[in-house]
Design brief:
The chain is of the alpha/beta class and about 250 residues long. It contains nine helices and seven strands; from the N terminus they run βαβαβαβαβαβαααβα. The chain has a single domain, classed as NAD(P)-binding Rossmann-like Domain (Rossmann fold, 3-Layer(aba) Sandwich). The chain starts with 7 loop residues before the first strand and ends with a helix. The mean pLDDT is about 95. The structure holds nicotinamide-adenine-dinucleotide.
């Protein structure tokens, strides 16, 4: 494991939900952060909170559905911090629309946020990670990355595509010591996305996403000598980290 204090993380979808908790976990671990999100006001509030803790962070307001804007955001982050130790692509949207009702533009927008941005951001950091012979890339997947769900006409194929990209890049990254993994919550979490999609039964047992943020501290220090090419479970990993810290 690589020491992550002072190292750089690029993180998408940091304005709220799980991404916010990942940002805070990284800030507490002493990482320097390029945070990307489309919600300007909320993102700047997160950045202010991190700076008030003495942290170093660059908020980048970007619509990750837009290829040019995503490329520009990656270049801004690279110009400011250089190649990151870890890239976490967390941003996503989930619109439940049947095949009868879905419109191509909406379908494409959702796909772009999930998979086009995963590709553009990974491509932007890849050469630097190859040169460094070290790095970790994480895509936040879902049960929808391996199973089908009615009305997830874009989310489900987008998450499946992230699993596919992870498999290819983990193989290509192995000789350069770059770890590439996906991760799923492993438990029902209380986030804005969940609030609009969970059933009352799921909401009755959801937990704060802060509980599954420690997994990302582990992933930030990972390289291909550790775990690569896996679909990880954030709840299990975070529990393992809590147990390790107590012993
Ligand atoms: N909530 C769950 O139960 C659950 C389950 C499985 C997987 N996931 C995955 O976990 C990740 C985080 O989920 P969450 O529940 O925190 O979601 P959320 O909707 O609460 O937060 C998503 C964040 O992404 C940002 N975002 C959305 N569109 C964007 C765009 N076009 N450009 C830039 N940023 C954009 C939002 O502003 C927000 O800050 C997602 O990848 C999601 O698919 C969530």
């Amino acid at each position: 494991m690589v020491e992550i204090k002072g190292k750089v993380a690029f993180l998408t979808g940091a304005a709220e939900g799980w991404g916010y908790e990942i940002a805070m976990a990284y800030a507490r671990a002493g990482m320097r952060l390029a945070l990307m999100d489309v919600q300007a006001e909320k993102l700047h509030r997160v950045a202010d909170e991190i700076k008030a803790m003495g942290g170093d962070c660059l908020p980048i307001v970007v619509d990750l559905a837009n290829a040019g804007a995503t490329q520009a955001a990656a270049e801004q982050a690279l110009a400011h911090y250089g190649t990151p130790r870890v890239l976490v692509h967390n941003a996503a949207v989930l619109r439940e629309v049947s095949m009868l009702d879905v419109q191509f533009d909406n379908w494409q927008r959702e796909m772009n946020i999930i998979i086009q941005a995963a590709f553009i951001l990974s491509k932007a950091v890849w050469a630097g990670m190859v040169e460094a012979q070290s790095g970790s890339i994480v895509y936040i997947s879902s049960g929808s990355g391996i199973k089908g769900f009615v009305k997830e006409t874009a989310y489900c194929p987008g998450k499946h595509a992230q699993e596919g990209l992870m498999k290819v890049l983990s193989m290509e990254g192995q000789p350069f010591n770059i770890a590439v993994n996906t991760i799923t919550p492993g438990i029902a979490i209380k986030t804005p996305m969940s609030a609009s999609h969970y059933t009352p039964e799921q909401q009755a047992r959801w937990v704060e996403p802060a509980l599954i943020a420690p997994a990302f501290v582990y992933l930030a220090g990972l390289d291909a000598k550790g775990a690569t090419g896996h679909r990880l479970d954030a709840w299990q990993l975070s529990e393992a980290m809590r147990v390790a810290q107590q012993s």
